[in-house]
Write a structure and sequence with these properties.
The protein is α/β, with parallel strands linked by helices. The protein folds into 3 domains: 100 residues; 137 residues; 114 residues, 3-Layer(aba) Sandwich (Rossmann fold), CATH 3.40.50. Helices cover 49% and strands 7% of the residues. It contains 22 helices and 8 strands. The longest helix has 20 residues. The model has no long low-confidence stretch (mean pLDDT 94).
């Protein structure tokens, strides 16, 4: 095979051999870390993506030899812990990803290291923060939600939380909402199904932990937009966390358990001709990419991945099929729109921007750069400042045109950006909520 340097060929991804004993072999893990880190040292194209690469290069440059052999292997963990698996190095920067013979997959190597580390023991904080379902179910009990939200806004309480659990006192945390989305959702399934060539004509909504427990309005807005476009919709009969928080922690067994809970019901819906839609990009990516790489022979996983859509990706496909209404009543004015990493790596293009630009009287400024939050990573006391540092260019660009609306497909990134921008007159809204506003429904 004629392999050219520079990512001139489309990157391919190897299956994650996470059930092999070699995957957790310490000597083999560190040998592979050394091999890949040395390649990164000789390249350095990814230095501006996150703090993992600058940390690696500083360790090398400040070592006695100025090479990787001068870095103590125990310090490799400083690099591993700063990788939050955004995948941007793999998808947009690295010239040595497969099919290149050097076979560099930096994010999945860091995931392997995280999995090795997890087996040695994880902090209570990390187990708690990644258990989104259990925390969400407790925190959205009506009396409990009021107490939790008040606690999270109390400076003395946050100081205690920082000291005991390591959640940074300055991180603005999302409120828990009661009632939950799934308990009040009213999907309309009585319209006739009109399939298009690019997307099915009916939707099954996997609401996600975040929408169910924290921002149910996003889910209600999505159902309203689907109903306005005469697209029949149902909720997935039962759902649990997608498993992404556990994956990012290196808890692959719990991620596999999430797959076992969710995939059978989703696969049934996929085979019945539904488009599977998830309103949080990380959850969409879990089903589209991570489960297929963890379970490459599982036909149910493959069926789910094939049927899975980001909501704006789905609506853009309907538009290209001539099946999306464009009867927008309200202009949105200036919109600053951020493309989150876990949407970028799905390689679906800038579908959200395309749809928002269809709305008359709407000017969209698009920011295509990592905001630096990444799920639970930017909440932790040891990484909060780094997450804000990574996000500063995004904060500046999002605020530059004094927008009426600030939006990101990732609602957690949007909250992070809102915090980084400080007090402004901008209103934070999910792109789906902006579409509902534009439709006037």
């Amino acid at each position: 095979m004629n392999v050219k340097e520079g990512s001139l060929q489309a990157p391919t991804r190897h299956a994650l051999d996470w059930r092999s004993p070699d995957f957790y072999d310490e000597a083999k893990l560190f040998a592979e870390l050394e091999r890949v880190y040395d390649i990164c040292h000789g390249c350095r194209r990814c230095v501006n993506l996150c703090t993992a690469f600058p940390t690696l290069f500083d360790l090398i440059d400040e070592s006695a030899t100025g090479e990787l052999d001068g870095v103590e292997k125990r310090r490799y963990w400083e690099v591993v812990d700063r990788c939050y698996l955004c995948d941007m190095c793999y998808m947009s920067k690295c010239p040595y990803v497969p099919p290149h013979p050097w076979n560099v997959d930096f994010p999945h190597l860091q995931l392997r290291a995280k999995a090795f580390k997890f087996r040695k023991g994880a902090k209570l904080r990390d187990r708690l923060l990644s258990n989104t379902d259990a925390v969400g179910k407790l925190a959205t009990i009506p009396i409990v939600s009021a107490a939790v939200n008040a606690f999270n806004k109390s400076a003395p309480a946050r100081a205690v939380l920082e000291k005991t659990l390591g959640v940074h006192r300055e991180r603005v945390l999302p409120e828990y909402r009661s009632p939950r989305f799934r308990s009040r959702a009213e999907p309309k399934a009585d319209q006739p199904v009109v399939d298009g060539s690019r997307a099915p004509g009916k939707v099954a909504l996997f609401s996600t932990c975040y929408v169910n427990y924290n921002e149910p309005g996003i889910g209600h807005d999505l159902l309203a937009v689907l109903a306005h476009n005469a697209i029949p919709a149902v909720l997935v009969e039962s759902e649990a966390c997608c498993g992404m928080p556990k994956l990012e922690l290196g808890d692959l067994e719990s991620a596999a358990a999430a797959k076992a809970r969710n995939v059978p019901a989703l696969a049934k819906l996929a085979r019945e001709g539904y488009a599977l839609v998830t309103p949080v990009p990380s959850c969409t990516l879990m089903f589209k990419q991570e489960f297929p790489l963890m379970f490459p022979e599982d036909v149910d996983v493959a069926a789910v991945a094939q049927a899975m859509f980001d909501p704006l990706e789905y609506l853009a496909a309907r538009h290209r099929d001539g099946l999306l209404k464009t009867d927008f009543r309200n202009a949105l004015g200036r919109v600053s729109y951020h493309i989150p990493c876990h949407l970028r790596v799905q390689n679906v293009g800038q579908k959200t921007r395309e749809l928002l630009e269809m709305i008359p009287g709407t000017a969209v400024t698009t920011v295509e750069r990592c905001a630096g939050h990444d799920g639970t990573w930017g909440v932790k006391v040891e990484y909060f400042e780094q997450s804000m540092k990574i996000g500063r260019p995004v904060f500046r660009q999002m605020a530059a045109n004094e927008p009426q609306h600030v939006s990101s497909d990732c609602p957690i990134a949007a909250r992070h950006i809102e915090q980084g921008m400080g007090v402004t007159e901008s209103r934070r809204r999910h792109p789906i909520s902006l579409l509902r506003l534009a439709y006037g429904i």
